[in-house]
């Protein structure tokens, strides 16, 4: 079957999140046919990653996606001021058997990751994997050679040694510039001839053609205006930097069909415009979830009684990938975020029960509010859920 995958990249310029900005960023770009969404954010305010911000872009994006698309957050991570969020349809939770992360730092000779890359690999319940790489390379028109060098050092984040990778998407604020004077570029934007700059003056196009960077990667045809640098709150160039297509989405792999590639002129919270690309990818997965941990069905439970859930673990799975850091979580029935539970305990604290000659592990939770829930087993070595119960209900005792 074909999966529709949509990629977003947005340099936030340290701007705070607010509802209108999030809505304008996402609205109209994710439809009911979308299977996976990858969102790369650059220049996220430090307060959002180290604490202090009451409302963050990541929280606001997740809330918007849960409400408007019913997608779940499958993976999230950050490096300095860069973040990546991966969302997917609920039925895909059981089709992902492992999530891996890679990081490469370039700022201050690798001391920090303000400039650098984040790689995420989704291993499916098939021989195939999908990779997403979000990058923020060094700025400045004079630093073209440094950006090319950063590509080569950051290439490890694309899992190049993994032959199972069916599709790789590399996106972000690459910071490659248009080598032309400011007045000429602005004049071409005004008279509608700016696209001719791509073949003759765009540093990234030249690097790909000359095989200096992103070897084997492709880009959908660009039909939109440069995405940097805008006057905040508008779609007009600020007149201080040569307008350039700094924000890009590239792809590499088999069975990939281009759908769309555009900037988003409604999202004007930053001095960058976000870029969105959509693709169809031929994905082969098992027809049903192949859980390593199987939960016993829970009947309706009274809130006044501590919740006890029982499950069985595939012994081969635990031998190869089990960890004392694995945990059991109570999730809302909607499973908005696979990485965060309402309540959780370490799997190592569970106790054994023998039921009709079969061995189970049991987990216990107290004082769970009235509502509909699922239990899930999160494997820390695999960075994903490897077991998920059916929905059960907690009610007040009559």
TrEMBL record:
- Gene Ontology BP, a term: phosphatidylinositol dephosphorylation
Looking at the Swiss-Prot or TrEMBL record, what is one Pfam family this protein matches? SKICH
What Gene Ontology cellular-component terms does the record carry?
Answer: axon; cytoplasm; dendrite; membrane; neuronal cell body; non-motile cilium; nucleus; presynapse
Molecular function terms from GO? inositol-1,4,5-trisphosphate 5-phosphatase activity; phosphatidylinositol-4,5-bisphosphate 5-phosphatase activity
Looking at the record, the residues that make up the Inositol polyphosphate-related phosphatase domain are 1-287
Can you tell me which family this protein belongs to?
Belongs to the inositol 1,4,5-trisphosphate 5-phosphatase type II family.
Q: What is this protein called?
A: Protein CBR-CIL-1
